[in-house]
Amino acid sequence: MPRCLTPKVGSFLWLVHHDIRLSWREFSRMFAKFDATRGFLVAAAALIALHLVAWPIAALLVPNVDEVIATGQIATIVTVALSVFAWMVAQGLIGASRALFARSDLELLLGSPLDAITVFGARALAITTSTFGSVGLLVLPTANVGALLGRPSWLFVYPVLVVLALVGTSIGLLFSMATFQYVGPRRARLVSQLVATFIAGGFVLGVQVWLLLPEGVQATLATAVTAIWGRESRLAIHVSQVLSGDVETVLLITASSLALFAVTVRLLAGPFARATLSAAGAPAEGRRALDIEQPLRFSEGFGRALRRKEWRLLLRDPGIYGQLTLQIIYTLPVAVLLMRSNQELPTGLAVASAVVVIAAQISASLAWIAVSAEEAPELLATAPMGAGHIERYKLSAIAVPVFAVVAVPTIGLAFASVRVAVLTLLISALAAVSTALLNLWHPMPGNRRGMLRRHQQSKLVALVEHALAITWAIGIMLAVHSVWLTLIPLVVVTGILSAVAPFSPRRAIGSAIRRGLRGAIALTQTRFARLS
Amino acid sequence: MTSRDLLPAQGGDHDDPQTSAVTLRGLRKTFVKVAVDNLDLTVRRGELYALLGPNGAGKTTTLRMTAGLLAPDAGRISVFGIDAIADPVAAKRITAWLPDEPMLYDKLTPVEYLEFVAGLWAVDPRRAETEAEDLLRALELWAHRNERCEGFSRGMKQKVALAGALIHNPRLIMLDEPLTGLDAGIARQVKELLMARVRAGASIILTTHILEVAERLADRIGIVSRGRVLAEGTFEELKALAGGGSRTLEDVFLSLTGSDACRAA
Predict the structure, then answer these.
(1) Cβ atoms A469, A430 nearer than 8 A
(2) Which of B97, B107, B148, B154 best probes binding to A when mutated, by most A CB atoms within 10 angstroms?
(3) Structure confidence by residue, pLDDT tens digits, A117-176
(4) Strand pairing partners for B173?
(5) Which residues contact B264 (CB under 8 A, 6 or more apart)?
(6) pTM here?
(7) How many CB pairs under 8 A join A and B?
(8) Is the ipTM above a cut-off of 0.85?
(9) Using CB atoms, which residue from A296, A305, A513 is nearest to B111?
């Protein structure tokens, strides 16, 4: 960047520039294997692809939105906007929670002579940008295409998303700080994560519940919603004005949200600085030492030790519960979609498919936690045990929680049909094994807190994981029809796994690394190579 | 005396599995550039050997290869007569590795961590219970034995990791910068525990940047630079090598590594 364009050292813009640079480097790591020209071409191709995907959606929406504006029946649009807003609040909450608890560079910044408002303001803006990006990537291409199709007012989605991101971040920060003050640093993180999970998942759940309601109830509720934010409500009027391209309204809401953001930053900067520093030095929440001299009681055996360790770590990480719950919530549409698409389909079969998908996804997540997010890979690699044994024990450890999650709905299914329940259990086991193997063969080292973000490291693994889950979901339906038809998904899954196995980095690393926990060790090696 | 006189000799007494704890011969490892370059090293049984060298000299890479965490590109590694490349599991059974960053699980308590590590090395549970209690008491962790490690200071975490490394009573203990970042009290506890292990017959190799530690604790010192051992011997031998002006290990170290750097230039 030319010197004349570099912000003044220590200013708010200088810190924002610092944050943007760090974020950009993190993002560009995904394209590390491309040079600048190829990276630009890949980014341009991705942008074009997003717009091509958005084109039919925009074409479909244009007449509907026109009609909505003309008739003033904008309840649907308001509902969508509120859902997007809820998502952004959840993102704001997660971002605020991370900023509070991830020490990263905040201790350095807060220990410097910079004032807390500058530091906090820059961090809050970074959260806003990330919140904006999480929705913008999907929504903005549709708005651009809408503008190309003769609806330039759709470009007002840009400032509207900025407004929603600013307000969502402000609410997230206010909530996180309030939680921090009232429940303490250790529980605040958990509360924020759970609330964010339920806000984000609430939309999906809401849609599921809505789709399952009888048509009469749907109509009654629609009338009630329209009455609340229908043609006459203030919210509806503002939304109508924005959709019609009313610049004054857009400016008004933008200015209001900026004011709210500025006030939030000014109010919270001091408490945030104190909270961040105290969160870093907060005492452990663990059990206090026993007063009585109780003798130690150790269990015996390598496998038992490894399984107990995995279970203890899972049980003591409430953040994992939130992430797994969210994953289950996101899976529920499978059942509803099946029931909606085929009215003849028995509810039990739709539920069975959802259970299989849940088993596949939970197993994949837990396998990733056990293998890729292992906290002490070197300890295991120096243990006198082959990597194969370690991996087998780890996979057997995750089988128990997967079974626990699957057992409840399967017992429910058994009341409808024992045969369907048994087949569901068997297919779920196969699905769980297949996605666990995928994650074992393609480790993606990371921190266990980033379970839901693990697919950012490899889109291919994400794609294959979903393909496996869907194949088994179809498999259960075929199996219920005829057990012999189970061979079809079995062959397909074997084919998929055989196709991806040769690309496993474990094979490429070589025989030497096979002695350790390969994926995690590979990361350590890379880091070490950089240092050397 | 020249530095060649103090380089580890190949063959003969030094390769004798009856007297050597670790024998490294022609060890070589290349990442982007050469990290370890035809390194020869012998650590005798029952001695504390300090590996010194500037940053990036190849000390940690050497220890990681000996611990079975990295495969050498070439060379031999023998641990108490066991070929650690051909039979890594047998070598690991009698070895402990403690990196500079403690390998811990934040959500486990020290007792649970020790139970886990004892399970990994298949230590008899009754013996492990006694050993764990002794270690926790010796390192003044007993009062914190049921607290999760997540709230511990770096020093406490390092002590828990050290207890984990020692619970299977290893014959060879390798430590990478074990005293860095510890306060004087904790550092003394760690040093005393290590010396007790040496007295009990264990062999220790440690890397350190705290030259005073090497000077006081080590039976022999090896100075490594750019992947090779420049010189090794007792402190007195190294002092003699470096010349009359060298009074401390720091003088010796700078004299040896400095001259090497000049030659490279």
Answers:
(1) no
(2) B107
(3) 888 898 899 889 888 888 888 889 998 998 898 888 888 889 889 999 999 999 988 988
(4) B96, B204
(5) B226
(6) 0.70
(7) 147
(8) no
(9) A296
